[in-house]
Each structure stands twice: as structure tokens, then as C-alpha cells.
Amino acid sequence: MPRRIVKPLIILVIVILLIGAVFIGFGIGYRYVREQDKRLGYLKDQFDARGFAPFNKDTPDAVEIYIEQQANTKDIAVMLKERGFIGNTFAFEFLSKFNSFDGQY
User: Among 43, 45, 83, 41, which residue's Cα sits nearest to residue 63?
Assistant: First the structure.
């Protein structure tokens, strides 16, 4: 094939692959967030049905963490990372903002 045909075809294939990767990434991220919403909805339903949180001091592997008043998302993320509950403070802060939890502490 002549070079005048091959080069545009390669560029077209690369652009299509990049667009496909963006759509796949968006789909995976969207599904993750929807699953989080389902989990949080389940916990909220349990809280509403029982009138108290589904966790207590006898819950296996439960950990109590004290968050000071006026703590911002970054403070909470750093505290959780120091204790080994999260691996990435940026991801915690991003998901907190994305799920509209930021600033509710």
C-alpha cells in the first residue's frame, strides 16, 4: 500500500482505539459509582429500619475512628492512609467530591 494511504489509516485506528478506551474507562467508572450508591443505599435502609447503625462494638473487624469537627476531606484521607485503611488519598478525595460527601463533616 502507498504511504499516503497507510499513514491516515494508522492515525484513524489510533483515534478509534483512544475513543474506545475513553468509553470503556467511563463505563467502568460509572458502574463503580453506581455500585457504591447501591451499597450506601443498603446501609441507609438498614439505618432507617433499625433506627441505629448496623455496626457496633461487637461487629467483627469493625474499627471506630474519631473525626474531629471541621475536619476537611484531606485531613480524613491522611488519617485513613496513616492507619492503612486506604492506599491513595487522592482517590479518596476525588470519590468524596464525586459522591457529594465533601464538606459534610
Answer: 83
